[in-house]
Design a protein that fits this description.
alpha+beta; Lipocalin; eight-stranded antiparallel beta barrel; 1 helix; 49% strand; signal; Lipocalin-like domain-containing protein
């Protein structure tokens, strides 16, 4: 009986730590980020965009709000996001023109107070995005 209770407590502690890592990543993401490079190439003003992540209290399978905007024009759209896998995966949910939602998975390679590096794999091709907090 004692072993069962101990195993249950260990399992609860492990889930709690994983949730804390996800929430810590959400806290670090809070704010506005400017894309600097894509696949090592500097992004020009005509292609630059920002993503603003709104901080929220993340619950399992819950999405937080975000906003993506082009720097030099009025192109902008709302999106939602969540962090999972102990703070290592960022899921961006976008709505297409038909009203359908698509989840775009990004690996968080680095997340500090002023730099975010994501690897996004789409259609079998990986792209690396480097953002700075502004």
């Amino acid at each position: 009986m004692k072993k069962t209770i101990l195993m249950l407590l260990i399992a609860i502690a492990m889930v709690s730590v994983a949730c804390n890592k996800d929430q810590n990543a959400v806290k670090k993401l809070d704010g506005k980020w400017l894309v600097k490079t894509i696949d090592g190439s500097v992004v020009g003003d005509d292609e630059a965009f920002t993503i603003r992540f709104d901080n929220c209290k993340l619950k399992k399978d819950e999405y937080c709000t975000a906003y993506q905007a082009a720097v030099n024009d009025t192109t902008a759209f709302d999106l939602t996001y969540k962090v999972q896998s102990e703070g290592t995966v960022l899921i961006l949910r976008v709505e297409d023109e038909d009203g359908e939602f698509e989840d775009i998975s990004n690996t968080i390679d680095e997340l500090s107070k002023d730099e975010l590096i994501l690897t996004q794999t789409a259609f079998g091709t990986a792209s690396k995005y480097v953002f700075e907090k502004i």
